[in-house]
Amino acid sequence: MDNQEKFLQLIGSTNEANVALALEIAKGIPEIALEEVMQGYEQLYKFRFWEPLEEPMAPTHIATLNQIDYIDDYSRRLNPLPSVIGNLKHLNQLKLAGNQLTHLPESIGGLQSLQELNLSGSKLTSLPESIGNLRNLKGLRLNGNQLQTLPHSFGNLNRLEALELIGNQFSDLPENLEYLRNLQVLFLKDNQLTELPQNIGSLQSLQKLYLDNNQLTNLPDSLKDLQNLQRLSLPNNRLVALPENIGSLVSLERLNLYSNQLASLPELWRLKNLQHLDLRENPLSQDIIDHVKGSLPNCEVLF
User: Fold this and answer.
1) Are residues 7 and 27 in contact, defined by beta-carbon separation less than 8 angstroms?
2) What is the pTM of this model?
3) Residue 179 covered by a domain
4) How do residues 172-224 score in pLDDT, each as one tens digit?
5) For residues 130 and 92, what is the distance between their CA atoms, to the nearest angstrom?
6) How far apart are CA 104 and CA 122, in angstroms?
7) In sequence order, what are the residues at sequence separation of 6 or more whose Cβ sits closer than 8 angstroms to the Cβ of residue 118?
8) What is the chain's Cα-based Rg?
9) Does a structural domain hold residue 46?
10) Is the domain of 125 the same as that of 225?
């Protein structure tokens, strides 16, 4: 292990003596911008503990920061996010909604304990490839940003259970979403989606899928494979037809098709668990509505 590697290992320690040793090592390595490192830690310390330092940043302050397991501060304008954030190895919640972040440092991939990440209400246009290193991440909330795509490494987040991407600029979704096998909730409202990936049926754990206010004209046949899906929300799209096999969604409880362009429907009688069906603002004939109501006697049908 060279001195630079030793520095990186020690600077993230919760032991004050180890941090002090790391700072001494850094003095002999020109490649380490020690002043920038100290400024980053000072910025995080003030942000996390809501108090200015009355003395210069010291090993005791850094060791204290390295022990924290959450940062949860709404709209306090931490921008940019200091690269030293990646040294907080015990952090399991990072919630910075409303902080107007424009980019994330690659070092964020070092947060190996992170389970919840909320960066909603920022100005992110992209995510670093290192986001795929957050292998323990369970909840990712990126609502209200300017994202158009996701990095290739995104498929590595195979413990992710909840993904929120409301109010971004997605016109399509990457195929590597199929690897999110533990995903249970997916929010994609208020984007510009014109289609869904053909392999969306690979999301076998998915229970709730929200696609309100997009530009979808059809749905992939693989949707039938979402056997655990309970809620499917599709209002304000441009759907002209539903997959013939949509009746295979035997766990479905709520289906919202408000304000689409549906003039016909496939057989829905197999949806025995369906409790709520919204068909309002579609060009459906009364005969079709009556047939649907007759085939789903225990379902509330809005038309």
Assistant:
1) no
2) 0.95
3) yes
4) 998 899 999 999 999 999 999 999 999 999 999 999 999 999 999 999 999 99
5) 17
6) 11
7) 94, 95, 96, 97, 139, 141
8) 24
9) yes
10) yes
